[in-house]
């Protein structure tokens, strides 16, 4: 059985190296914009990080009367109550700010709201995060992301050369920062699952970069006299079919999550989808052309004998 | 690359079959699983609280209060010892993390130091330049006490939760002073929170009959006494009461062996029984203090202070406070389970109702099935026969992942399901890499066998590098993440491992079989 479609019969001749200055400019602009957004608008931290109360309730009678609920809850003195329907018309997400006082005060807030709405509502989910835990989670999350990127860079350095490691770190930071920028721009809720998504994006982006670097290294060894720009162009074009197909197929899987996975992981799926796009872009236009400037060592390596793997893992 | 020794073939086949076999119980309905013969392992993936519904509580043990309470205890002991040995002092008080003492006569210093050691060998006394004594617990002993306080809290929490009949609670230590409590199936944890919110430290202490609370409050509080609020019948009716209580604990609630709620004169009361040492002390105290009031103090509140009419020597008694049936039952439960060594605070609470959990499972499963379907179609469209092989490998990949999750006892969360869907996408990457490489090698003029062989072997180095980096990210997530994120990391890491196995061995085996069977002249991709 033969394939119905072939994405690219022959490798194309896209002048990636020529385009890379444009790519750099776009990326620098994107990064600066993201940093600016993060500095001015900041992130819309969910309760995981900010502390506070979220309750998901199902209203009786198939449809929620938000106005009535708002009136009822606002009269309780719990601070600014935000209500939002969530999926179905009778699914309501109630957000309460962090209650002044200690952790016990947070629990009291939930009880007050619960008692006020009464038992006809179905309480689908209640989350209370104290201010103490929130701060720690931000801290742990930042450390996890940094460590992950550094550990991956160390591995790439170990398996390739430091120039590759550097390129991988820069492009991964680029992906992470622009993802954060997107979250800031759209004010999407940033919570623990989003953090997991960002780490996964880092992993995915590196994965993509490594595949391309692997080919660059192989081409470098095969054509010792070819200028570095030519090596990079050839490698990117030869692996382009794979890059596009893999990204599309992963994107398809993530799209299924986004459409059918339910509200709870919607933010996660959205982050992942963006991550796949930006990760693929940065491998092609940032990570690979960066080698042009970092200039990895070319001599001294043995050419790979035909028919065997260039390096045995 | 295309040589498959028989033993290798069989190992791959056996592992795949084992995967299917172990994954099967997760797919079969529970009734079928129950009928399986007992020798067959039937592990099922356990669902996280976000999928099955339940409560997740993160508690913090107030360790500061442990040290503080211990210092207060030492202070009482020290005061008694100093009085007994007639060592004069001008000041004696707990200041922060130590006890400060100023002796009237500096010559008593050595004697006082000896006393400190007698009171508690863990205490260390040091003299400050201004002639004061600073007495504190050694760092080592504090650390030890903190650890044991957390361990003890876990034990007490377990007992309290067990008494409520909650099924399969998970109680585990998190960090230095935290306890994570997971209660599957509990969608309103108010009662549990109420039970955990009380230390339930009960003591029997004498009421100081010589002075009224008003006089004591006016500044005449005798040393060794304290004023405690009442939680008795009058207080419940809105008339706050107060008692002057002698600090000395006559009998400790820790000596109770049983407590149960019952009725007396149609009112709920608590019946209790002491162990032998408690019974002896209770008998001694009641004998020596007939016609005086004996206060039952719970968490620094007096729940009742009956007059001792006659010595009670049987080692059992009744507490009649102002209880409802529920509160009597709760108190009896708390007394049976024992007192917490320190108060607990709830740092984080996440509760998911059973319906939302069921919805999440449905949504997650749908998403996974759609993802599998789309990926499968995609592979066949772009790679034809080799796409079918990749899909077969993908199927075994899913089975192995499910099998690994269920045999390792991992918990599946909603982000975990996302991890599975994502793994599917990644698993395909390896197949794409191999197939693209084969295509490329063929384009460069290699023959069928040679191109396939080179395709596999060249792609492998890349696959390994790409997956190792991913695995690094995954394991860091696992190490540093918490709750649902951890669940995601588990499926991601296991998924990477199983997909490495299935692409590197299963799809290759399928291609090798096809090569041997058909001896093709051209590559179908």
TrEMBL record, chain A:
Its main location: membrane. The chain crosses the membrane at residues 21-39, 137-158, 165-186, 192-213, 244-265, 271-292. InterPro entries: SecD/SecF_arch_bac, SecD/SecF_bac, SecD/SecF_CS, SecD_SecF_C, SecD_SecF_C_bact, SecF_bac. GO terms for cellular component: plasma membrane. It is found in: Cell membrane. It is a multi-pass membrane protein. Pfam families: Sec_GG, SecD_SecF_C. GO terms for biological process: intracellular protein transmembrane transport; protein targeting; protein transport by the Sec complex. It comes from the Bacteria. Keywords: Cell membrane, Membrane, Protein transport, Translocation, Transmembrane, Transmembrane helix, Transport. Residues 111-294 form the Protein export membrane protein SecD/SecF C-terminal domain. GO terms for molecular function: protein-transporting ATPase activity. HAMAP family: SecF_B. Belongs to the SecD/SecF family. SecF subfamily. Forms a complex with SecD. Part of the essential Sec protein translocation apparatus which comprises SecA, SecYEG and auxiliary proteins SecDF-YajC and YidC. Part of the Sec protein translocase complex. Interacts with the SecYEG preprotein conducting channel. SecDF uses the proton motive force (PMF) to complete protein translocation after the ATP-dependent function of SecA. This is Protein-export membrane protein SecF. It comes from Aliidongia dinghuensis. The lineage of its organism: Bacteria, Pseudomonadati, Pseudomonadota, Alphaproteobacteria, Rhodospirillales.
Automatic annotation (TrEMBL), chain B:
One of its GO terms (molecular function) is protein-transporting ATPase activity. Keywords: Cell inner membrane, Cell membrane, Membrane, Protein transport, Translocation, Transmembrane, Transmembrane helix, Transport. The chain crosses the membrane at residues 363-385, 392-410, 416-434, 455-477, 489-515. Gene3D superfamilies: 3.30.1360.200, 3.30.70.3400, Multidrug efflux transporter AcrB transmembrane domain. It holds the Pfam family SecD_1st. The keyword Ribosomal protein does not apply. It is a multi-pass membrane protein. It comes from the Bacteria. It is found in: Cell membrane. Forms a complex with SecF. Part of the essential Sec protein translocation apparatus which comprises SecA, SecYEG and auxiliary proteins SecDF-YajC and YidC. PANTHER family: PROTEIN TRANSLOCASE SUBUNIT SECD, PROTEIN-EXPORT MEMBRANE PROTEIN SEC. NCBIfam families: 2A0604s01 (TIGR00916), secD (TIGR01129). This is Protein translocase subunit SecD. It comes from Aliidongia dinghuensis. The gene is secD.
